[in-house]
User: Which sequence fits this backbone?
């Protein structure tokens, strides 16, 4: 059967089981939009800015555990995706990004709305394609989904010139498999590597696990818990590893890093064996590399061989998928008990709890997250922006289920909170809580219209401190209180929501907030909540930039 | 200690592959001394010989990051394996009736070839490993080098060992073969990275 390139692309998406994708039209993708009506089973969500299309696909992917898809036109449409693609790349989120380009004979001639998007995205995609024939579409899309969703996951971009959408090619069904010689699947670890890791783990006296995003992506929570229990190893997560370990488990000791829990940072610093699982020993998590626990032996399990040994000397490198590796490691892990070590950390935890909630009636960030946790029984999916509100949401909400926590960790993209929550809401029915900064919210609030269009029950909780709070905190602590360009003017968020036909509410006291949580239980449309926070609250604890984990401070007096 | 390392990579012969490799080197700040690419025994693949400056850890990262590119089929660090390496230089030396004889003497010593003759100049082709070409260039400098071009290094392992990518369709075996290639130098313990 001969089909146009546009139809072939849609047939491919259907074969991949894509149920929703996020896009924005323009000249060169019109042949594609012309066919969308014939594929009603593949929902196209019209966003209001292409950056949001990419973040929405990313949010959807993280919550659904499937590959997210977005689409943009050539030139400005494609370049608007860049922040969203980079966000996904840094956090290894599986995504297929579709872009149109100018007709083949105009490529390279600076035609109207031509952008070299494959060139631009070279360093921010796992792989990309510029397709010059309609017959290349099916194999390339098959490869794109395969590459995006296997190994260390990530975004793959497919760029299709306008006339390739129109050109016809033979369609004889979606390709069954791929043949990518330079891309073997490295899920299964080498036996000798597993043996070596087991040996070090079994001999450890003060072991610690640092679980990263790989645990969540591999959906290995069950294996992680079993491994931790068998070896009696306390578990810390990275910022992105949150939700990989159920936080109500007695071996869960929170997350480590710049604003991680004090006891988590100390535990990592004092361990004799550090077992990194599906993580990349990033500087925000580890503090100053040269002073991170120099005597610890490091076991590093990761799907990406290039991450192993990148930042730290590794005593037992294990290259493999987290779930696969843990299930092979488990039988070799001896039943162990480390009561003294556990007691040591418990004591630090008792002395330095993460509990910076002050008495009073004013809304404080930590209090608000705790109240939200109570109101939602800790069961909600939380999406955040970047800044103080993000750190409070990481510190105070008790995550127990994988994929319950969605945040831009690697790139730290403000403005992620609105579109990512919107996209994530397409993956589940229960309302998503989007914890927004008043700054970040203003970066992408145009998507309230998309939210209204689809009547998505997202709760946009704006942590409104009237500041670019995290930057203000740095100016206060490290730049002699010299506030510059952080005092943020803002619209009336309630009126703004109403302008979009969305319910807008405000809370200025704790009592009001509690009432609001109760009221919302029976409301199933979108809501914007303007939580007016204490303006100059700081996030504690903190590892000052460039300091070691052992130098974690708990208040400005420690500086 | 930074030193020169020789890496051989096989890549799919597709448009844009060189840009991908170059982009990676630029982005990660790898220090490339030379990169030579051309056809090899297998149609559809190109073979790159890459000379990089760096310590063990950096070379290890180069190999591993390179292999992450989908179009890169194999990467092997052959710095410490017995190999033959060659580079070629074309050197335009000013030579007139006065000194042509002297120039030709040097040509002979290096077993180089004269590939173009002009009343005022010669083009000399020197073939050899880097050291030999360096030495030749140095000698020709006394006559005045008008222009020079050097290819990068090409290299091949000695004996029956090859750097050819595993021709394996079974993904598991391919992974094993690739791990064996990537794991050669840093096996087990890796050096510390600097901040
Ligand atoms: C796109 C982008 N621009 C700038 C920054 C730098 N930055 C990090 S946190 C922050 C302040 C965020 O303010 P807000 O959204 O109000 O959150 P708060 O810290 O007040 O909770 C800024 C400007 C960033 N992370 N992302
Ligand atoms: Mg703010």
Assistant:
């Amino acid at each position: 059967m001969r089909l146009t390139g546009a139809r072939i692309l849609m047939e491919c998406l259907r074969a991949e089981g894509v149920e929703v994708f996020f896009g924005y039209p323009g000249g060169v993708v019109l042949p594609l939009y012309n066919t969308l009506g014939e594929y009603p089973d593949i929902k196209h969500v019209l966003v209001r800015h292409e950056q949001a299309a990419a973040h929405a696909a990313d949010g959807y992917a993280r919550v659904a555990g499937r590959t997210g898809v977005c689409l943009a036109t050539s030139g400005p449409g494609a370049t608007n995706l860049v922040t969203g693609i980079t966000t996904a790349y840094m956090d290894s989120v599986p995504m297929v990004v579709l872009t149109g380009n100018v007709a083949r004979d105009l490529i390279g001639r600076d035609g109207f709305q031509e952008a070299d998007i494959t060139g631009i995205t070279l360093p921010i995609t796992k792989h990309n394609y510029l397709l010059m024939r309609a017959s290349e579409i099916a194999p390339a899309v098959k490869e794109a989904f395969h590459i995006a969703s296997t190994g260390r996951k990530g975004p793959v971009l497919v760029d299709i010139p306008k006339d390739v959408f129109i050109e016809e090619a033979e369609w004889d069904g979606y390709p069954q498999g791929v043949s990518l010689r330079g891309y073997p699947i490295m899920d299964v670890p080498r036996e000798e590597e597993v043996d070596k890791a087991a040996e070090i783990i079994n001999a450890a006296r003060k072991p610690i696990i640092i679980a990263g995003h790989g645990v969540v992506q591999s959906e290995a929570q069950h294996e992680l818990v079993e491994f931790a229990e068998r070896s009696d190893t306390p578990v810390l997560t990275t910022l992105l590893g949150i939700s990989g370990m159920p936080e109500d488990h007695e071996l869960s000791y929170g997350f480590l890093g710049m604003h991680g829990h004090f006891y988590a940072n100390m535990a990592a610093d004092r361990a004799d064996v550090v077992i990194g699982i599906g993580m990349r020993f990033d500087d925000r998590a580890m503090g100053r590399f040269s002073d991170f626990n120099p005597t610890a032996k490091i076991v590093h399990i990761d799907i990406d061989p290039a991450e192993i040994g990148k930042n730290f000397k590794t005593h037992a490198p294990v290259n493999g998928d987290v779930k696969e590796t843990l299930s092979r490691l488990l039988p070799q892990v001896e039943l162990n008990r480390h009561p003294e070590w556990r007691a040591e950390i418990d004591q630090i935890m008792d002395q330095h709890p993460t509990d910076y909630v002050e008495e009073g009636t004013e809304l404080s960030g930590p209090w608000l997250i705790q109240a939200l946790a109570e109101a939602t029984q800790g069961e909600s999916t939380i999406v955040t922006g970047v800044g103080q509100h993000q750190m409070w949401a990481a510190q105070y909400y008790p995550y127990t289920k994988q994929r319950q926590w969605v945040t831009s960790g690697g790139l730290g993209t403000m403005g992620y909170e609105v579109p990512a929550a919107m996209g994530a809401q397409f993956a589940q029915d229960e309302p998503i809580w989007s914890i927004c900064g008043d700054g970040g919210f203003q970066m992408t609030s145009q998507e309230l219209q998309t939210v209204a269009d689809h009547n998505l029950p997202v709760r946009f909780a704006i942590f409104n401190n009237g500041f670019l709070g995290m930057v203000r905190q740095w100016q206060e602590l490290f730049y002699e209180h010299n506030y510059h360009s952080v005092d943020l003017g803002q619209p009336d968020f309630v009126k703004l929501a109403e302008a979009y036909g969305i319910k807008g509410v405000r809370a200025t006291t704790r009592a009001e907030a509690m009432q609001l949580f109760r009221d919302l239980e029976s409301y199933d449309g979108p809501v914007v909540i303007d939580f007016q926070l204490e303006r100059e609250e700081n996030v504690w604890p903190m590892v000052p930039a460039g300091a070691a984990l052992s130098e974690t401070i708990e208040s400005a007096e420690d500086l | 200690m930074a030193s020169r390392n020789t890496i051989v990579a096989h890549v799919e012969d597709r448009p844009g592959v060189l840009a991908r490799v170059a982009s990676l080197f630029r982005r990660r700040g790898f220090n490339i001394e030379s990169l030579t690419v051309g056809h090899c025994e297998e149609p559809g693949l190109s073979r790159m010989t890459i000379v990089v400056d760096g310590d063990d850890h950096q070379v290890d990262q180069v190999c591993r990051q390179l292999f992450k590119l989908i179009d890169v089929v194999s990467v092997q660090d052959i710095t410490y394996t017995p190999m033959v390496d060659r580079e070629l230089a074309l050197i335009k030396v000013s030579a007139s009736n006065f000194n042509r004889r002297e120039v030709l003497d040097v040509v002979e010593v290096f077993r180089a070839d004269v590939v173009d003759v002009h009343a005022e100049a010669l083009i000399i082709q020197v073939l050899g490993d880097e050291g030999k070409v360096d030495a030749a260039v140095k000698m020709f400098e006394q006559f005045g080098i008008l222009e020079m071009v050097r290819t990068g290094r090409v290299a091949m392992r000695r004996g029956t060992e090859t750097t050819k990518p595993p021709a394996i369709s079974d993904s598991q075996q391919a992974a094993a073969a690739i791990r064996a290639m990537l794991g050669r130098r840093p096996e087990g313990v890796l050096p510390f990275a600097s901040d």
Notes: Chain B has a mean pLDDT of 89.
